[in-house]
């Protein structure tokens, strides 16, 4: 029963831009899917970047999730997954904080996926998706095969598109929730970047 | 970095600012060096050596080994017996993930000069880079026994403990920082965040009081305002809370909400402040139990 995990070009680009903006710290964020999605085969249409400092602290995480939840209700979306990049370049396992957050997400969206960035595969010219996915279903974490992770419209087009964004250094204008908390005028929805990504 | 710095003096001043403020702008530093300053190195005088060190570290951060090697060789030529340059060599090994070589050099430096704080701290980062957090914590606690006033080190230790979910020890680190700087709103806010994450009604009360103090010292600290709102609402809805404190909490959360609405100018964000209060109960992630 192989279920696929698909990422839209927008969601994938945002994940990579977030990682490139803060290459020296851990980063995390949530993945959004359309309301009423089939949770076996998930398609993530958007990603909201959260933090790059102290990912383990609860209060701002709660504030962020509440705000994202409010936004989702107006946009017909749900929080359906989570992404994370570790601080150490070689680290490939999800840390306890990520697991806890994803388990919480899974309470509302069963079979939520935890997308981990493979730091070593990142480069200015992206040749690999650099992601690995584990899914939380029936109380257990299961690693998803590479074939079951797809980036839309297709891997190659998405990688080329992201590489172009990186060469233009668009990650410098990228805003995550931590940036918003430092300066509330900054838009964590990155609406202005969206048109450049599409 | 939109502004085009054409004049090398402007670039020199900018790099000096970044050095003083300890900013991590590695990509920009290397770009500025390559585009402007490298051609005017001779005009920098003694400051040139500081610039070389800064560019070296920035180049390592960007994994630009060509620039790093150039800077290091120039520094080595000028200061062949310097412990400071030796430490930079250790950093180069660290950047190439040759951790054993790096550790050897650092141990040599510490043997020659026991007061060399920077080298001891680099050992901590080597353990951290390899994901050996327990060893990093041990090394850092040993360091702090000797260099007790190093605030940067206490903050780093706090971050390490947070990553290990050792809330009491993390709180202890912030308490040390607060002893140094009791009016630093960022330390107060950090303490409140740790207490909130720890959970439990008593910790919630402590978190609220620290968030209040932080917000009092800096009413523009958004995290403190949100924290104040969160803790007040949770306290008010907790059965353990006496009615006097409930009223207090409600007033505090109203004040915090007002402050936040004043700060948020754009139309979209106004939408969220009120909805936060509505959605309060659903998404509690911390260890806190309401009962």
From TrEMBL, chain A:
Range of residues in the leader sequence: none
Family: Belongs to the EMC8/EMC9 family.
Assigned GO CC terms: EMC complex
Protein's UniProt name: MPN domain-containing protein
Source taxonomy: Eukaryota, Metazoa, Ecdysozoa, Arthropoda, Crustacea
Pfam families, A to Z: UPF0172
Domain MPN positions: 5-142
TrEMBL record, chain B:
Location, primary (coarse class): endoplasmic reticulum
InterPro entries noted in UniProt: EMC2-like (IPR039856), TPR-like_helical_dom_sf (IPR011990), TPR_EMC2 (IPR055217)
UniProt key word Thylakoid: no
Membrane association type: Peripheral membrane protein
Domain EMC2 TPR-like: 86-195
Subcellular location: Endoplasmic reticulum membrane
Keywords, alphabetical: Endoplasmic reticulum, Membrane, Repeat, TPR repeat
GO cellular component: EMC complex
SUPFAM superfamilies: TPR-like
Gene3D superfamilies: Tetratricopeptide repeat domain
Positions of transmembrane segments: none
Highest taxon of the lineage: Eukaryota
PANTHER family linked to this entry: TETRATRICOPEPTIDE REPEAT PROTEIN (PTHR12760)
Function: Part of the endoplasmic reticulum membrane protein complex (EMC) that enables the energy-independent insertion into endoplasmic reticulum membranes of newly synthesized membrane proteins.
Family: Belongs to the EMC2 family.
Subunit structure comment from the entry: Component of the ER membrane protein complex (EMC).
Listed name of the protein: ER membrane protein complex subunit 2
């Amino acid at each position: 029963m192989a279920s696929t995990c698909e990422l839209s070009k927008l969601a994938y680009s945002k994940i990579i831009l977030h990682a490139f903006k803060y290459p020296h710290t851990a980063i995390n964020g949530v993945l959004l899917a359309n309301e009423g999605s089939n949770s076996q085969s998930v398609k993530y249409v958007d990603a909201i970047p959260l933090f790059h400092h102290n990912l383990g602290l609860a209060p701002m995480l709660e504030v962020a999730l509440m705000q994202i939840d409010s936004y989702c209700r107006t946009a017909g979306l749900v929080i359906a997954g989570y992404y994370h990049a570790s601080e150490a370049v070689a680290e490939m396992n999800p840390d306890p904080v990520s697991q806890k957050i994803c388990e919480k997400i899974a309470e509302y969206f069963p079979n939520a996926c935890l997308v981990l960035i493979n730091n070593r595969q990142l480069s200015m010219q992206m040749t690999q998706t650099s992601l690995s996915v584990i899914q939380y279903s029936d109380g257990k974490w299961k690693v998803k095969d590479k074939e079951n992770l797809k980036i839309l419209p297709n891997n190659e087009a998405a990688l080329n598109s992201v590489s172009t964004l990186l060469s233009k250094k668009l990650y410098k204008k990228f805003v995550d929730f931590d940036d918003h908390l430092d300066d509330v005028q900054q838009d964590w929805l990155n609406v202005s970047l969206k048109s450049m990504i599409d | 970095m939109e502004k085009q710095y054409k004049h090398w003096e402007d670039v020199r001043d900018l790099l000096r600012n970044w050095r003083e403020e300890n900013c991590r702008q590695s990509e920009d530093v290397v770009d500025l060096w390559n585009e402007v300053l490298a051609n005017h190195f001779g005009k920098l005088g003694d400051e040139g050596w500081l610039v070389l060190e800064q560019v070296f570290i920035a180049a390592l951060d960007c994994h630009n080994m060509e620039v790093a090697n150039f800077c290091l060789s120039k520094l080595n030529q000028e200061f062949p017996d310097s412990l400071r340059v030796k430490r930079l060599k250790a950093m180069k090994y660290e950047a190439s993930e040759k951790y054993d070589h790096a550790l050897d050099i650092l141990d040599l430096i510490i043997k020659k000069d026991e007061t060399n704080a920077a080298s001891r701290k680099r050992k901590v980062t080597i353990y951290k880079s390899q994901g050996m957090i327990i060893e990093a914590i041990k090394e850092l606690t040993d360091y702090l026994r000797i260099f007790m006033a190093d605030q940067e080190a206490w903050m780093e230790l706090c971050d390490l403990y947070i990553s290990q979910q050792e809330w009491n020890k993390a709180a202890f680190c912030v308490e040390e920082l607060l002893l140094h700087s009791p009016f630093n709103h960022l330390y107060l806010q950090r303490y409140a965040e740790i207490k909130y994450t720890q959970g439990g009604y008593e910790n919630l009360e402590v978190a609220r009081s620290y968030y209040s103090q932080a917000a009092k010292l800096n009413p523009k600290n958004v995290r403190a305002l949100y924290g104040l709102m969160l803790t007040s609402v949770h306290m008010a809805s907790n059965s353990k809370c006496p009615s006097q404190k409930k009223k207090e909490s409600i007033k505090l959360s109203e004040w915090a909400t007002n402050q936040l609405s004043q700060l948020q100018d754009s139309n979209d964000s106004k939408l969220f402040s009120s909805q936060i209060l509505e959605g309060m109960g659903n998404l509690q992630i911390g260890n806190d139990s309401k009962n």
